[in-house]
Design goal:
By secondary structure, this protein is of the alpha+beta class. It has 3 helices and 7 strands. The strands form 2 sheets. The protein has a 4-stranded antiparallel β-sheet, with no helix packed on it.
Length: 145
């Protein structure tokens, strides 16, 4: 989705527009979101026209078919006269656990960027990764000197 880490993979693909799932799904998240078939709410996302090479790259990223399973579902595109088309979505039927947060609205963008607690958690996670990378580089540098 526009504004997220892996969106660069779609840089050569055509954005059709924002879309809502026609059916309801359950979205949960812990740094990354995933959907299950449990009917809870309509999910907001984006639809892109991708070629076979891009689809293969995204399948690999999503761990299809072992982690996420790609399925074709109907979605409605409000910016295109509410046209209904079929689009690929990645589902994970892993059961929810306390480590996942329910995204009741079905809007991950809103959940991630309008949630002060979550912003803080992302910042802490990011800084922890950066500190670990710096420490590893310093250790490597000291070994070489």
């Amino acid at each position: 989705m526009t504004g997220f880490e892996n969106n660069y993979l779609l840089s050569n693909s055509k954005l059709i527009g924002k879309a809502f799932t026609c059916g309801k799904f359950k979205m949960v998240a812990r740094f990354i979101p995933f959907l299950t078939k449990e009917p809870l709410t309509h999910i907001l996302g984006e639809v892109y026209e991708v070629d076979d090479q891009c689809l293969k790259i995204i399948d690999d990223l999503e761990g299809h078919p072992n982690y996420y399973k790609r399925e074709l579902i109907p979605v409605e595109i409000p910016g295109n006269n509410f046209e209904v088309i079929n689009a690929w979505v990645y589902l994970n039927e892993e059961k929810s656990s306390p480590r996942y947060t329910l995204v009741e609205s079905g809007n991950y963008y809103e959940y991630r960027f309008n949630n002060e607690k979550l912003k803080s958690e992302f910042a802490q996670h990011w800084f922890k990764e950066k500190k670990e990378a710096i420490k590893a580089a310093e250790t490597e540098r000291s070994k070489n000197n």
